[in-house]
């Protein structure tokens, strides 16, 4: 890392880490779990150039950047962990002719770095009234499906739905 950006980058990382931890605590508590239970989230800082889109009811919509704001992305894996309490949204990045789009993603994986460990809905969220909506799978299998699929194919999460 160049000397000129080292201090500000390390400060930024420190604050993003604290924000990620706070969001995990809040999301865990929203599910009725201990504050340190969750992992897997993406925070995205983007400049003023639009390029992120989300799919809603079959139509793509721009996510207009808010100066100093962050996009919080609850992805497929957090949807599986929460047994569909939290929903992932299909999204994409597009190019445009307005200018250079700059994004700084921060990925939080928590305990998801264990590729050989079974992954599925959190046991405490499963009950007779709320049965599992996904079968357990290995993260390495999910990652392989994710990396081998195109944007128009069946999403990897669909392979694990019950």
UniProtKB/TrEMBL annotation:
Keyword Metal-binding belongs to the record: yes
Gene3D superfamilies for the chain: B-lactam Antibiotic, Isopenicillin N Synthase, Chain
Source organism superkingdom: Eukaryota
Fe2OG dioxygenase domain mapped to chain residues: 1-110
Pfam family, one: 2OG-FeII_Oxy
Swiss-Prot/TrEMBL keywords: Iron, Metal-binding
InterPro entries: IPNS-like_FE2OG_OXY (IPR044861), IPNS-like_sf (IPR027443), Oxoglu/Fe-dep_dioxygenase_dom (IPR005123), Plant_2OG-oxidoreductases (IPR050295)
Name of the protein described by the UniProt record: Fe2OG dioxygenase domain-containing protein
């Amino acid at each position: 890392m160049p000397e000129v950006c080292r201090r500000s980058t390390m400060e930024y990382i420190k604050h993003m880490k604290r924000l990620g931890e706070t969001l995990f605590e809040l999301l865990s508590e929203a599910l009725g779990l201990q504050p340190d239970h969750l992992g897997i989230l993406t925070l995205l800082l983007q400049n003023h150039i639009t390029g992120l889109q989300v799919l809603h009811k079959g139509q793509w919509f721009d996510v207009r950047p808010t100066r100093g704001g962050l996009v919080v992305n609850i992805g497929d894996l957090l949807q599986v962990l929460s047994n569909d309490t939290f929903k992932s949204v299909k999204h994409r990045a597009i190019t445009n002719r307005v200018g250079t789009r700059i994004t700084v993603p921060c990925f939080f994986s928590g305990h998801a770095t264990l590729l050989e460990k079974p992954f599925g809905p959190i046991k405490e969220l499963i009950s007779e009234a709320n049965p599992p909506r996904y079968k357990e799978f290995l993260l390495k299998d999910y990652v392989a499906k994710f990396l081998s699929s195109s944007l128009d194919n069946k999403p990897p999460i669909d392979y694990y739905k019950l």
